[in-house]
Design a protein that fits this description.
Chain A: It holds the Pfam family SufBD_N. Chain A: This is Fe-S cluster assembly protein SufD. Chain A: It comes from Bizionia arctica. Chain A: Belongs to the iron-sulfur cluster assembly SufBD family. The complex is a heterodimer of chains A (437) and B (250). Chain A is α/β, with parallel strands linked by helices and 437 residues long. Chain A is built from ten helices and 20 strands. Chain A has a ten-stranded mixed β-sheet with strand order 2-1-5-8-10-12-14-16-18-20, with helices on one face. In chain A, strands 3, 4, 6, 7, 9, 11, 13, 15, 17 and 19 form a ten-stranded mixed β-sheet that branches. In chain A, helix 2 runs antiparallel to helix 7 and helix 8 packs across helix 9. Chain A is globular. With 250 residues, chain B is an alpha/beta fold. Chain B has a single domain, classed as P-loop containing nucleotide triphosphate hydrolases (Rossmann fold, 3-Layer(aba) Sandwich). In chain B, strands 6-9-10-3-11-12 form a six-stranded mixed β-sheet, sandwiched between helices. A four-stranded antiparallel β-sheet of chain B has the order 2-1-4-5. A two-stranded antiparallel ribbon of chain B has the order 7-8. Chain B is globular and about 60 Å long. Classes of the chains: A alpha/beta (437), B alpha/beta (250). Chains A and B meet through helix 8 and helix 9 of A and helix 2, strand 6, strand 7 and helix 3 of B.
């Protein structure tokens, strides 16, 4: 049976299983219809021109894992930013692990989507926010139809949440092939500040496909800093769709660090619904072998006096392929917009490739918008210069790559994340750096 | 220390060095002069191990070892230092981090532990003061936006930090005003000892007023056509290079 048919018949079983009176019952039914009509996206669609899902859709995925498995914290500690005190929402094969998690309801809600969907006290927030900004494309709709579990974070106004929140999904290989569809809802009210770290990690070589949807609402003057660490093994694929709705004077940043995975697609959409908003989208991608990464961004400037800053760096080795598709849409009313976009790439191997496409649609006449894409190789004369000072070629290359991605790391506000990313990069490049950038 | 025998080298199949012979002993300062395009910078790059240059004939011996097969970093580990005519800009790497990496990689190759941070800082302070380098300068990205003089001073700073056995200064005087020239020359003179040697590659005699060479060689069309003492540099300054060319022809 094709995956699509399997999902549609699974949905019927799923519906009988869960509460038909669930407040999102209608939303789910509508979503499965969209998926049923559209199916999985193909390369014929403009947004998927350079990314084919064929190789990841061929597996016979379990949609609802049957077996539970526990894992010991010490075995997976390295996947956490464990040096810092944090809240943790951890899932194993899509199921919540209370053992590894540390949630809270004290003043803020850092808990589970399943609880939020089922308990009456959350109903109002669900009605107001759930599936309100996620687009109605087929993959997000598929996630909506099956949405059951994920992180639910609700921060009331005037809260500075000092501990970052880590959302981590482990897959254990308990199923021959696993499809996960986490659904996160994050609502940050006026003047509040929250930092979130998200990671997906497969612990075996069994194929895993994750179709994740996250909706983030940043209300007036809220600050949201989101870090995505994508360093999964090479049988795991991720389709991540993150939607951020910003109200006036809010500041949101998303840093995406992509080093692992077989296929990674990041759909990152920012909607600026207010004035004097600041949006930051940054990414470092370092991949090789036959890995594929596709960054698909949208910043929609709806109101005047807002800023957006996009800076994506990519380093591609072996036969890896990359895509950057960055769309900036400036409405007629959005005067005095400052929108910057940069995408710089280094191809280390002759077989690696990148397709980069800036898309600017500007309807206002008093704006500053810039974009720039570069594709190049490592500078041979810089390598010789460094070698002549005693730095071996391999280390010299690594140092140049570090330097290249340095300004993306410089805006990371949690030093432990910066150190971790530095370590992952050093590891990835097989070198030991004498300092942290 | 350095012995070059009948060295021929080419880049992209174009022969540039056509039979160089040169012996440099510890404690000596050699100046290599010559008109543009005579092969001076190529000689410097070939000794330092630039990959694009192919040695087609002859050999370079460093401490009696043929270094033809050694990578540039391995030559550096054995004590070769090249001060670049055009130092490369490396955005994102500070002068301090760069030199730390260079020193510790060299120590690693010699089987030594990393230099303790305290010693490193002390050394950096000492050498930067000697070359009158501002502390703020050290945290800037390597060579990025540096003036010509700053770049050259930074080269000599790295040389002072790395304490090479054989230093090759490729057109270090170009782009320097007279004050910077004096500072750089003083730095080089302070680093000179009976155990190390310096090769100065220059077009003009100017730098040689400050760093006095023991030997002067004139390079023309890929060959050393004349060698002599420091007075040869003065003669070249007065008469230009044409008489050498004439002499070669006749």
């Amino acid at each position: 049976m094709e995956l699509k048919e399997k999902l549609i018949s699974s949905f019927l079983a799923f519906e009988n299983h869960v509460d038909i009176d669930s407040p999102i019952h209608d939303v789910r039914s509508e979503a499965i219809k969209i998926f049923e009509t559209e199916g999985f996206p193909s390369k014929k669609e403009e947004a998927w021109k350079y990314t084919s899902l064929n190789s990841v859709l061929k597996h016979d995925y379990s949609v609802f894992p049957k077996h539970e498995k526990n894992i010991e914290y010490n075995d997976v500690k390295k996947y956490f930013i464990h040096e810092i005190d944090s809240y943790k929402i951890v899932f194993i094969d899509g199921k919540y692990s209370s053992h590894l998690s540390q949630t809270t309801h004290e003043g803020i809600d850092v808990c589970l989507m399943s609880a939020a969907l089922n308990k009456p006290k959350y109903q109002l927030v669900i009605e107001n926010y759930f599936n309100k900004i996620a687009t109605k494309d087929s993959l997000s709709s598929l996630n909506t139809a099956f949405s059951q579990e994920g992180a639910y974070i609700h921060i009331p106004k005037n809260k500075l949440v000092e501990k970052p929140i880590q959302i981590i999904h482990f897959s254990t290989g308990n199923e021959a092939a696993l499809l996960q569809q986490p659904r996160n809802l994050i609502v940050v009210n006026e003047n509040s500040h929250v930092q979130i770290i998200e990671r997906h990690q497969s612990l075996t070589d069994n194929p895993v496909l994750t179709n994740s949807v996250t909706e983030i609402f940043a209300n007036k003057r809220a600050i949201v800093d989101y870090y995505k660490i994508q360093n999964d093994n090479e049988n795991a694929s991720l389709i991540d769709s993150t939607f951020i709705n910003q109200k006036q004077e809010s500041h949101c940043s998303v840093h995406t660090f992509t080093f692992g995975g077989k296929l990674t697609r990041n759909n990152l959409n920012f909607y600026q619904n207010g004035e004097r908003i600041d949006s930051t989208l940054k990414g470092v991608t370092i991949i090789g072998k036959k890995q594929h990464v596709d960054h698909n961004t949208l910043v929609h400037h709806i109101e005047p006096n807002c800023e957006s800053h996009q800076d994506y760096k990519g380093i591609y080795d072996d036969s890896s392929t990359g895509v950057f598709n960055g769309k900036v849409l400036v409405n007629k009313e959005a005067q005095k917009t400052n929108a910057f976009q940069a995408n710089n790439n280094i191809l280390i191997s002759d077989k690696a490739s990148i397709n980069t496409k800036p898309q600017l649609e500007i309807f206002a006449d008093d704006v500053k918008c810039s974009h720039g894409c570069t594709i190049g190789q490592l500078d041979e004369s810089a390598l010789f210069y460094m070698q002549s000072r005693g730095i071996p070629k391999k280390e010299a290359k690594a140092l140049l790559m570090y330097a290249f991605s340095n300004n993306v790391l410089s805006s990371v506000k949690i030093p432990e994340i910066k150190q971790r990313i530095t370590k992952i990069i050093a590891n990835k490049l097989g070198v030991n750096m004498g300092f942290d950038l | 220390m350095l012995k070059i025998n009948n060295l021929h080298a080419s880049v992209d199949d174009k022969a540039i060095l056509k039979g160089i012979n040169l012996v440099v002993n510890p404690g000596e300062v050699h100046a290599i002069m010559g008109p543009n395009g005579s092969g001076k910078s190529t000689l410097a790059s070939v000794i330092a191990g630039k990959e694009e240059y192919e040695v087609t004939e002859g050999e370079i011996l460093l401490f009696d070892e043929n270094i033809d097969e050694l990578a540039a970093e391995e030559r550096a580990h054995k004590g070769v230092f090249l001060s670049f005519q055009y130092p490369v800009e490396i955005p994102g790497v500070s002068v301090t981090n760069f030199i730390k990496t260079a020193i510790n990689e060299t120590r690693k190759a010699q089987g030594l532990e990393d230099m303790p941070a305290k010693d490193m800082l002390k050394l950096i302070r000492e050498k930067s003061e000697m070359l009158e380098i501002d502390r703020k300068f050290l945290s800037r990205s390597l060579n990025e936006g540096f003036s010509g003089g700053e770049k050259k001073r930074n080269e000599i700073f790295q040389m002072a930090m790395l304490e090479p056995k054989l230093a090759i200064l490729d057109e270090t005087d170009s782009g320097l005003d007279i004050d910077a020239l004096r500072i750089v020359a003083n730095g080089v003179n302070k680093l000179k000892s009976k155990d190390n040697a310096v090769i100065i590659i220059t077009h003009y005699q100017r730098l040689l007023d400050y760093i006095v060479p023991d030997f002067v060689h004139v390079l023309h069309d890929g060959k050393i056509v004349k060698s002599g003492g420091k007075e040869l540099a003065h003669e070249l300054e007065e008469k230009g290079y044409d008489w050498i060319k004439q002499e070669v022809v006749t």
